[in-house]
Specification:
Elements lengths: L1 H8 L4 H21 L2 H17 L1 H16 L5 H7 L3 H16 L7 E6 L5 E8 L2 E6 L4 H12 L3 E5 L5 H18 L6 E3 L6 H7 L8 E5 L2 H10 L12 E5 L5 H13 L8 E7 L3 H14 L3 E4 L1 H6 L4 E2 L13 E7 L1 H12 L4 E5 L3 H10 L4 E4 L19 E2 L7 E2 L6 E8 L7
Parallel strand pairs: 3-4, 3-6, 4-5, 7-8, 7-12, 8-11, 9-10, 9-11, 12-13
Antiparallel strand pairs: 1-2, 2-16, 14-15
Helix pairs in contact: 3-6, 3-8, 4-8, 6-7, 7-8, 11-12, 14-15
């Protein structure tokens, strides 16, 4: 505790502190890799209880964070991401319970086969090691990342943003309580005890090989920096430029409900829709109701000529609007030539995150789902389902849009790799 307080005050060597944290996490990872499912679940049970029992403490800490950043002129969307409520804390605890109920992935044999020479080869899931999670705002990431890494046998180093510093510390205390109760090392879930931005650079360097993977959760500038500077593998998405395409064969009422939810449920989350595409063949009956509904709901619409013609309240879209992640009550709207036009637009302007089609035409839906190269594609459902909790993962450590083994919501299973175990009976290679 003394070292942590000194770090907060800036009175210790940050590089030495970070290396010590990484060494402890590395040692804890070796313990976790061998921990039983029962022991990990005992820790998760205690973490869930601690979060529920300390809800008022967490809310008080969060209120201080919110007040500080509200006074700095932060946007409404930013404040929404930062704010915790009793319902969000309850959801955080529910997520811990869901993760606990997931089967332990460590040690699971995913494939087994026998070679002609009699050797048996198994592919078995193993933890990644030490995961560093660098995040901004959303203090719930503290719990989500902590419990997912624990369940998957990984140690985690959490570096929250200065915006959620107090909230993250209050949540982290609940996680440490669970580790203690289960007899697991406290360094299994480490929270960097300083707001010093230099800590991020040290994590990106890998801390002498003791960090195995980095997951950034935050704005474009943070993710871009991580992807540019990291010396270890990264699970990340740079932007969520997500589309909803409304096909000529869409049910209008369904389309309205999906588009409104995809854009306006929470505008500041990475699964929010940023562009509305409407089939030219259905625009006469679909475009006006969709655009009018969004504007009436308080959403600014920036559209092409067709959208501007249909409603005088639509502002002209600039070229940059087709590539924009607004994270606000703003959407770009465009008419396209059928499902092929939608796919072409998404290919040119999308970010490979989440895209949806609304249609009753199964052939069009199948074409969209097969050809849109995004981590998550949906048929007749809101893009706001781009969330590990909604996938049944309990939580997520992030959304990955790359082409490695972890793509989409990164949950317990995605936080494991594999190794091959070979059983022989004296075979040698000729």
């Amino acid at each position: 505790m003394t070292a942590s307080l000194k770090a907060i005050d800036g009175n210790v060597d940050l590089a030495a502190l970070m290396n010590d944290l990484a060494s402890s996490a590395h040692a804890a990872a070796r313990v976790l890799a061998l921990a039983s499912e029962e022991q990990k679940n005992r820790a998760l049970d205690a973490m869930e209880r601690a979060i529920r029992q300390n809800a008022e403490t967490i809310l008080a800490a969060n209120a201080e964070d919110v007040a500080e950043f509200r006074s700095s002129g932060a946007t409404a969307a930013f404040i929404d991401r930062l704010t915790l409520t009793p319902a969000r804390i309850a959801a955080m605890a529910d997520g811990v319970a869901t993760v606990r109920a997931i089967g332990d992935p460590v040690g699971v044999v995913t494939e087994r086969w026998q070679r002609p020479n009699g050797m048996t080869i198994e592919r078995v899931r193993v933890p990644l090691g030490v995961v560093a999670v660098i995040f901004e705002s959303r203090p719930n990431v503290t719990a989500d990342a902590g419990v997912l890494c624990l369940k998957s046998g990984n140690a985690v180093i959490l570096r929250g943003g200065s915006d959620s510093f107090r909230s993250s510390r209050a949540i982290h205390a609940c996680l440490v309580e669970g580790l203690r109760e289960a007899g697991l090392p406290e360094a299994a879930i480490t929270l960097v005890p300083t707001r010093d931005r230099a800590a991020v650079g040290l994590l990106l360097g890998g801390l002498n090989g003791k960090v195995d993977v980095i997951v950034p959760r935050g704005g474009k500038s943070l993710v871009a920096r991580v992807e540019a500077e990291a010396r270890v593998p990264v699970f990340a998405h740079l932007e969520g430029v997500n589309h909803v395409y409304v096909d000529r064969a869409a049910n209008r009422d369904m389309a309205k409900a999906i588009v409104l939810n995809a854009k306006m449920r929470r505008t500041g989350v990475c699964g929010a829709a940023e562009t509305l595409l409407v089939d030219r063949a259905g625009a006469a009956t679909l475009l006006g109701p969709l655009v009018g509904m969004l504007i009436d709901a308080g959403c600014e619409v920036r559209g092409d000529e067709a959208a501007q013609h249909i409603d005088a309240r639509v502002r002209p879209a600039a070229e940059d609007d087709w590539n924009a992640e607004y994270l606000d009550a703003i959407i770009a709207a465009k008419v396209v030539d059928g499902v092929d036009g939608a796919i072409a637009h998404i290919q040119e302007h999308g970010s490979h995150h989440t895209d949806a089609i609304v249609t009753d035409d199964d052939e069009a839906a199948e074409k969209f789902l097969n050809e849109v190269d995004s981590a998550i594609v949906l048929h007749n459902a809101s893009t706001q389902f781009a969330d590990g909790g909604e996938f049944g993962f309990g939580a997520e450590i992030g959304i990955a849009t790359g082409k490695f083994h972890a793509r989409g919501p990164v949950g317990v299973e995605q936080l494991t790799s594999f190794k091959y175990r070979i059983h022989g009976s004296g075979q040698t290679r000729p």
